[in-house]
């Protein structure tokens, strides 16, 4: 009877000891940025943005990583004769297509700017 009890306690300790071990993440392990959101109240802040900084932000990504560039303008905006409360658009693609994504976003912003009163 005592041997069974000791054996059960020993197994219990060994199983809890195995499950309690924790693996610490490697700080040198690369990370991926999959989404970057630009939120502003004025369109001017998007037109003055340094687009070359995106290269640094996504530099740790693998070329096949999907990324989203999200742009939001919060507040009242007048487009032609229409008043719009909020504007949001997303440019998506792979990290390897970052240069073309930047060009698409810049074209959308300049088109939006040209249509504003």
Output the strand order for the largest sheet.
Answer: 1-2-3
Q: How large is the count of helical segments?
A: 4
Give the ordered list of helices and strands. Answer: HEHHEEH
Helix content: 25-40%
- Rg from C-alpha positions? 26 Å
Strand % is: 25-35%
What's the story with the biggest beta sheet?
3 strands, mixed
Folded structure, characterized:
The chain is α+β, with helices and mostly antiparallel strands and 117 residues long. The protein is built from four helices and three strands, in the order αβααββα. Strands 1-2-3 form a three-stranded mixed β-sheet.
Keywords:
single chain, 117 residues, alpha+beta, three-stranded mixed beta sheet, 4 helices, 39% helix
Element layout with pairings:
Blueprint: H1 2-20, E1 35-40, H2 43-47, H3 53-57, E2 66-79, E3 82-94, H4 98-114
Parallel strand pairs: 1-2
Antiparallel strand pairs: 2-3
Summarize this structure briefly.
The chain has four helices and three strands; from the N terminus they run αβααββα.
């Amino acid at each position: 009877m005592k041997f069974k009890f000791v054996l059960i306690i020993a197994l219990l300790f060994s199983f809890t000891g195995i499950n309690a071990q924790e693996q610490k993440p490697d700080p040198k392990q690369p990370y991926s940025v999959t989404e970057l959101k630009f939120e502003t109240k004025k369109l001017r802040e998007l037109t003055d943005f340094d687009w070359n900084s995106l290269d640094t932000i996504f530099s740790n990504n693998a070329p096949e990583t999907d990324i989203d560039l999200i742009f939001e303008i919060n507040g009242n905006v007048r487009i032609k004769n229409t008043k719009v409360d909020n504007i949001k658009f997303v440019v998506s693609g792979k990290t390897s297509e970052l240069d073309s994504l930047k060009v698409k976003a810049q074209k959308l912003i300049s088109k939006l700017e040209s249509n504003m009163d």
